[in-house]
Design goal:
255 residues, mainly beta, 3 helices, 13 strands, 38% strand
Length: 255
C-alpha cells in the first residue's frame, strides 16, 4: 500500500559528513540521506529536488526550499501489516489519536502556524485512526494542515502528510457577494432546471476550501425545487467559485 522512499542499498549515516538532521519520531535523530531525484521509482514526482532524511524507524521528506517536513513514512525494514495488527496490551482512544496528530502538527509546522489560530480536527478509520488537522483563523482555513495522519490502534505513527498551502490572495468576496454570484450562475444553467425563485434562504452549505495549489475556493450548496418535464421535485445542487474573483469553477447537480 505504501512504498519505502529509498532503494535497497546499504547506507551508513555519518553525522560528520551529513550535518543536517532533525529530531524525528524514532529513538535517534533523523539524518540527511540524499536529494530525491525525478527518476526515482515509487516516489511522487512532486517530491523531486526535496530532501530525504531517515532514522531507525521512519523516513522523512523535507521541503528543500522552506525546510519543513512534508511526509513521514515507515522505513523500508518496518513491517506495515505487523504494526497495524499489533494492538499491544491496550488500544488508544480516538481522542488520544487526535491529540497525537495535533502534537505532530504543532511540532513539524511550528514555523508556519499563526498566533491565535484554531485547529479543526477529524478522526475516522477502522483498521487504523485517520486523523486530519487544519489551521483556521476566524473559521477560514489558512492552508496549513495535516491532511492525513495514520495512527495504529496501539498508538504507533504509520504515516503523516503535512502541507503549507497558504492562499495566494486575501481579497476575497464577502460571503453575501459569493452567495449571490453563485445563485446567478446556478439559475443561469439550463441543467439546474430551477423552479421558482432561488435566494439565500435556499443555501444549505457555504464552505471555503483550500485547493492543492493554494487557491481558495468557495462551495455553496442549495436545496431547491427542480423541474424535469411536467414533474417538480426536491433536489440539491451547488456552485464552486473562486473566492477572490468570483469566477465560476464548477456547477454541481444531484444525480
Amino acid at each position: 500500500m505504501f512504498t519505502s522512499l529509498y532503494d535497497n542499498q546499504e547506507m551508513e549515516f555519518d553525522s560528520a559528513s551529513n550535518p543536517l538532521y532533525l529530531d524525528g519520531e524514532g529513538k535517534t535523530a533523523a539524518v540527511f540521506v540524499r536529494e530525491i531525484q525525478p527518476e526515482e521509482p515509487d516516489i511522487n514526482p512532486d517530491y523531486a529536488g526535496d530532501d530525504l532524511f531517515a532514522d531507525e524507524m521512519y523516513e522523512y521528506i523535507v521541503d528543500h526550499q522552506d525546510g519543513y517536513v512534508m511526509r513521514i513514512s515507515l522505513g523500508k525494514d518496518r513491517n506495515w501489516d505487523e504494526l497495524v495488527n499489533d494492538t499491544g496490551d491496550e488500544t488508544i482512544s480516538s481522542e488520544k489519536a487526535i491529540e497525537m496528530a495535533k502534537g505532530l502538527f504543532e511540532k513539524y509546522l511550528a514555523d508556519f502556524i499563526s498566533e491565535d489560530s484554531d485547529r479543526v480536527c477529524d478522526v475516522s478509520g477502522t483498521r487504523w485512526y485517520l486523523v486530519t488537522v487544519g489551521e483556521t483563523i476566524d473559521g477560514i482555513p489558512t492552508g496549513v494542515c495535516a491532511p492525513m495522519v495514520l495512527i495504529s490502534h496501539a498508538g504507533t505513527l504509520l504515516l503523516a502528510n503535512f502541507e503549507v498551502n497558504r492562499p495566494s490572495n486575501q481579497n476575497n468576496l464577502s460571503e453575501e457577494e459569493a452567495v449571490w454570484k453563485a445563485i446567478d450562475y446556478f439559475v443561469s444553467s439550463p441543467h439546474s432546471a430551477v423552479e421558482g425563485e432561488l435566494t439565500e434562504d435556499n443555501v444549505i452549505e457555504n464552505t471555503l476550501i483550500i485547493q492543492m495549489d493554494g487557491r481558495l475556493v468557495r462551495m455553496i450548496m442549495f436545496s431547491y425545487q427542480r423541474r424535469i418535464g411536467e414533474l417538480t421535485f426536491e433536489s440539491s445542487g451547488g456552485v464552486i467559485l473562486d473566492a477572490e474573483t468570483g469566477e465560476l469553477i464548477d456547477i454541481l447537480l444531484a444525480g
